[in-house]
Every structure is written in structure tokens, then in C-alpha cells.
From TrEMBL:
Coiled coil recorded as keyword: yes
Tagged with keyword Magnesium: no
UniProt superkingdom: Bacteria
Localisation per UniProt entry: Cytoplasm
Gene name linked to the record: ffh
EC class of the enzyme, as a word: hydrolase
An example molecular function term from Gene Ontology annotations: 7S RNA binding
Name by which UniProt lists this protein: Signal recognition particle protein
Described function: Involved in targeting and insertion of nascent membrane proteins into the cytoplasmic membrane. Binds to the hydrophobic signal sequence of the ribosome-nascent chain (RNC) as it emerges from the ribosomes. The SRP-RNC complex is then targeted to the cytoplasmic membrane where it interacts with the SRP receptor FtsY.
Length: 437
């Protein structure tokens, strides 16, 4: 999704003047990107309408940087769509505070129960986990393992007792043992069914949870929206935890669950580890969707320095797996006009400063690097693995450098290539995330 939105918006970014036709075309692409990412149709329609209305406003179109203004509006509206500000958990004035986790099977309820417990424990609370899933084999054991890892007590009554009674007994246990938080893990089904809903309703009536939290798997796209709508209609939910946002996710779920249910996303699961839970920040999610790392400013910088066609070629090369010394040379020459190398590489998502240190590209070195590459034969440029000892000596002589320099360049090149591959893999993941199954 991010990839598609960036593509659409980067077209605007460079424009000094945006016509209504430009806006229409870009909005069409934004709309398609959102729909393909499984964002709910109605949500998309409203979203596009709002942006158009705000963008057509005269002060935007007539400002000096209309393209950037529109990107700003898209960013703001994305943030609004996901809830404007971070929404915190609420606590009962009459402890224990009961949080009831509900959701389909496999979305991450049990894991999230543990994560949430760990999070609250770190914040000075004394949580109790209650094993209310009596259907899934080994579900109780799973929660016990999680509890043990976090050193949080787990209450269970085996799998022969009605979950409503387990919930009730769990709360009583918490009161007796001084636990101010009860996190109730419940059963899920592959699909929403009446029995599941009846059971959850029974628990709700019995223990009156402070919050019913719907756990939603961010990877399930449009399905997540239907599930959220259903749970909210039948059970009434108070908040959402979005899991698996670390993976190959469609951004769509995050965008639509909130706007369809009007209930806040409170946390995001960012991995399988029990520490991988983060408060959900709508503004950060919007920025993440709009641009991983800082692709937009990289494109902007490129466009400022050489013409658009060349920038696109560069982008293609960066993404390409077949990256040869020939491309490297070409790219070096183009990049020289953009500013210091490290600064440019820093803007590529997935590149961290540690990798940059390893790369250690000094701008003064660029002259030498150019000379070295120019001393290579075309075959060597395409396939550096053939550059053996005697070839290295020849290239060193030809470029007026040393074998040492050749060695270090070959090493740098291999590292760069690895980095480019990471970048392109990441891009591919984002693309996959944006396509319908
Ligand atoms: P439940 O059936 O809803 O209780 O789901 P589980 O808690 O058993 O989780 C199902 C699977 O999803 C497990 O393999 C978890 O490790 C995994 N999982 C849960 N949350 C996350 C998350 O935020 N990121 C990732 N990558 N995996 C998660
Ligand atoms: Mg479970």
C-alpha cells in the first residue's frame, strides 16, 4: 500500500502547479491503491471525497507548493481515519479491572493476553491471566507457558468447565490474591458463529469487563473489517488490538477497522515475542503508510538534481537485483550531483547507519572508484567474481591505485549489492501487501 500511495503522491510532489486534472488522476490512483489494499469501499469513497474537497480549496491550489499541501492533507486524513490520537486503556474505579480479549481463532489472542499482561506489569500493575479457551487443544498450556515466561500468574480450571464460570471464578481469584488486573483469554472460531457469540455474551454479563478488546489480525484485510463489524454489532467492543503488523501486512485493515467500528485501535502487535506490543499511534501509522524511511524526500532530492527520467532510471536500478559495476559507475556519477553519499543512502529505507559505517563511502574516494571501474573490462564489470589476483593487479595499475583499494572496493560493492537486495525485498513485500489474494 505504502508503495502505491508513494508512487501516486510522488507525482504531485514535484509539481509546482497542480491542475484539477492532475488532482483527479492522482486521487484515482490513491483510490485504487487503497481498494487493492483491501480498505473497505465505503471508507475509501469518503476518504477520497474529503481529500478532494480540502484540496480544491483555493488556498491549496494557489499556494506555492500545492503538491506538498495535498500530500499533507492525505497524511492528516489518513491519521484521522486511524483515530487522530493515541487511545489509552481505561481502568476500573473498582478493581480488578477486567479486560476481555475476543476474536477469531489464530489472530493472536493468547499471545496478546500475555503481551498485555507484560506491558501492564511493567507499568506497576499486578495482572492475572485467565484461561477461558476450553476448546482449542493445549490452549490452557499455551497461556501457562506465556505466564511463566513473564512471571505472571495464570488461573485455569481445566477444559471441562463452562467458560462463563471460569471467568467468574477468575475474577474472584484475582480479588483474593490482590491482582488489580484480570486479562481474560477466550476461545475463537474459524468463523463467527452463534455459539461463540452466546458464550462471549454470557461472560460479558457475568463479569462486566471494563473493556472488551477485539484482537484483529492485520494480515486478513477485508475479512478483518467484516469480523470487526460483526463483533461490534453483537457484543459491543471497546477497543481493538491489531496484531501481526510486523509482517507482510496489508495496510488496509488498520485503515478500515477503526473507521467502520468507530472504536479505537489501542495497541499494535509487532512480532511473536512477548515484548512486541506497542501503543498504537495513528499519526505514526499514517507516516508509515505514506513513506517507509524517507522515500519521498529521496525522490524529491533526486528530482531536484537531475531530470525525472533519470531519477526513474535510478530508482529502477536501485530496485533491480542485477546490479553491476556498470550500474554502480553510472549511479555514482549521477549521485555525485546530489550531495554526500552517506546522506543519500541514509534515506533508503532498511539502511541503517551501522551498515553505512561499514560501507564507508568517502566522497573523495569516488574519483578513485570511478577510475577503478573504468579500468575494468566489461565482463569484469558485469561479473566481479572473475576478478582474480592477476586481474586485480592489472586494474590497480590501470587506475593508478593499489590492489588494496581494489580489494576494498570489491568488498564494498558486495555489501552495497546486499543492501540493495534488502531494499528491493522490502519493496516487494510492500507490493505483495498491497495486492488482493
Ligand atoms: P489465538 O488463537 O487468537 O489465541 O492466537 P495465538 O495467540 O495462539 O497466536 C497465533 C499465532 O500468531 C502464534 O504463532 C503467534 O506467535 C502469532 N502472533 C501473535 N501476535 C503476533 C504478532 O504481533 N506478530 C507476529 N508476527 N505473530 C504474532
Ligand atoms: Mg488462544
Amino acid at each position: 500500500l505504502a508503495d502505491k500511495l508513494q508512487n501516486a503522491l510522488s507525482k504531485l510532489k514535484s509539481k509546482g502547479k497542480v491542475t484539477e486534472q492532475d488532482l483527479k488522476e492522482v486521487m484515482r490512483e490513491v483510490k485504487l491503491a487503497l481498494l487493492e489494499a483491501d480498505v473497505n469501499f465505503k471508507v475509501v469513497k469518503d476518504f477520497i471525497k474529503t481529500i478532494k474537497e480540502r484540496a480544491i480549496g483555493s488556498e491549496v491550489m494557489e499556494s506555492l507548493t500545492p503538491g506538498q499541501q495535498i500530500i499533507k492533507i492525505v497524511n492528516e486524513e489518513l491519521t484521522t481515519l486511524m483515530g487522530t490520537s493515541q487511545s489509552k486503556l481505561t481502568f476500573s474505579s473498582n478493581p480488578p479491572t477486567v479486560y476481555m480479549l475476543v476474536g477469531l481463532q489464530g489472530v493472536g489472542k493468547t499471545t496478546t493476553a500475555g503481551k498485555l499482561g507484560g506491558y501492564l506489569k511493567k507499568n506497576g500493575k499486578k495482572p492475572l491471566l485467565v484461561a477461558g479457551d476450553v476448546y482449542r487443544p493445549a490452549a490452557i498450556k499455551q497461556l501457562q507457558v506465556v505466564g511463566k515466561q513473564l512471571d505472571i500468574p495464570v488461573f485455569n480450571m481445566g477444559d471441562k468447565v463452562n467458560p462463563v464460570n471460569i471467568a467468574k471464578a477468575g475474577v474472584e481469584h484475582a480479588i483474593k490474591h490482590g491482582n488489580d488486573i484480570v486479562i481474560l483469554d477466550t476461545a475463537g472460531r474459524l468463523h463467527i458463529d452463534e455459539n461463540l457469540m452466546d458464550e462471549l455474551e454470557g461472560i460479558k454479563k457475568e463479569v462486566r469487563p471494563q473493556e472488551i478488546i477485539l484482537v484483529v489480525d492485520a494480515m486478513t484485510g477485508q475479512d478483518a473489517v467484516n469480523v470487526a463489524e460483526n463483533f461490534n454489532a453483537k457484543l459491543g467492543i471497546d477497543g481493538i488490538i491489531l496484531t501481526k503488523l510486523d509482517g507482510d501486512t496489508r495496510g488496509g485493515a488498520a485503515l478500515s477497522v477503526r473507521s467502520v467500528t468507530q472504536k479505537p485501535i489501542k495497541f499494535a502487535g509487532m512480532g511473536e515475542k512477548l515484548s512486541d506490543l506497542e501503543p498504537f499511534h495513528p499519526d505514526r501509522m499514517a507516516s508509515r503508510i505514506l513513506g517507509m524511511g524517507d522515500v519521498l524526500s529521496l525522490i524529491e532530492k533526486a528530482q531536484a538534481n537531475f531530470d525525472e527520467k533519470k531519477a526513474m532510471e535510478l530508482e529502477k536500478r536501485i530496485k533491480s537485483q542485477e546490479f553491476s559495476f556498470e550500474d554502480f559507475l553510472d549511479q555514482l556519477q549521477q549521485m555525485k550531483s546530489m550531495g554526500p553519499m552517506n546522506q543519500i543512502l541514509e534515506m533508503i529505507p532498511g539502511v541503517n547507519s551501522k551498515q553505512l559505517k561499514n560501507l564507508d563511502i568517502d566522497d573523495k574516494e569516488l574519483v578513485h572508484i570511478e577510475a577503478i571501474i573504468q579500468s575494468m573490462t566489461p565482463a569484469e564489470r558485469r561479473n566481479p567474481s572473475i576478478i582474480n589476483g592477476s586481474r586485480r593487479k592489472r586494474i590497480a595499475k590501470g587506475s593508478g591505485t593499489s590492489v588494496q583499494k581494489i580489494n576494498s572496493l570489491l568488498k564494498q560493492f558486495a555489501q552495497t549489492k546486499k543492501m540493495m537486495k534488502q531494499f528491493s525485498d522490502m519493496e516487494k513485500n510492500m507490493k505483495k501487501g498491497g495486492k488482493m489474494k
